[in-house]
Design goal:
Number of helices: 7
Number of strands: 7
Structural class: alpha+beta
Amino acid sequence: MTQEFNPNHNLTQQIASSVSDILTHIGEDVHRQGLERTPERVGEAFQFLTKGYHEDPEAILRSALFEEDYRQMVVVKDIDFYSLCEHHLLPFFGKAHVAYIPNGKITGLSKIARVVDVFARRLQVQERMTTQIKECIQKTLNPLGVMVVIEAEHLCMQMRGVQKEHAITTTSDFTGAFTRPETREEFLKLIGK
């Protein structure tokens, strides 16, 4: 179940004022019918798209932490995410694949997806986001190892600049047991890579 999002009205108005200035600078009439409420909508949207700054990913994992004597790989794959590139404020989106090998503790599976969302809902670069997810899980669960693979399309690369429409960027990071090639290979087979 998705949590309801309630934007801060004062922040919405502050962002809306700046968006109105931007629209005016590019030659738009902020009072025409189609744009009358656009600054406020952008203000609310940006608060939602960056709500990860106000969420604690470690607390999310700890909220469903269980003692369990399971020491095999736990994989949550194909986690859809949407983020904003910090260089152009354009979206990048794709799938995250996360694995960890428990060391006496497991967490609720949905919590892994929520951690991905927390880091995605910040201004990001894909490389940093990959490492942040890995480090958060490693620090909070202290597993025998963690591996994160992210595959994403970047609109900053597709809509502008080099304009390569079908380019996919893949990043990975890992710790512990995943430093062994055979463990990484098992994970990659499980996610279909």
